[in-house]
Description:
alpha/beta
Amino acid sequence: MQIYLIRHTSVAVPKGTCYGQTDVPVADTFEQEAAVTKSHLDGITFDRVYTSPLSRAARLAAYCGYPDAIRDDRLMEMDMGEWEMQRYDDITDPALQAWYDDYMHLPATGGESFPMLRRRVSSFLDELLKQPFERVAIFAHGGVLVSAGLYFGLFAEADAFAHLTPYGGIMVVDY
């Protein structure tokens, strides 16, 4: 199976804002960014297309020609709990420093940990790989794509976020 993992385009939130599962708007550059992403998908036929239900992913899926992409909550970004929509520099939670020191394992206060996100994404991928599809597209988020990369053994956990797909970027996995 060939899996196209597509990250949403840039978002309209100030740099340094923790937005996680908040349904934030896309940036004013959406049309330009989405056109580039779409151009990389032109001529490719997918047996099935999935998207996160968050509008920044679903809107890109629709722009690329898949307005009826199947929405799956397991493809949402990591839930950042009480830190959502706060600038990291403004978060006063004493747990923040511990999270900075071990963000690959500790949850945000009231939110998810990266292992929880990975389990969610792995559950989706376990089900997907049982299907008879040849080519699938998934419109999602940076944390979801990193989780998928780890699932497929594309890189090690120690440097996982060094492989973060850019906004509007595509990672292709042959499995």
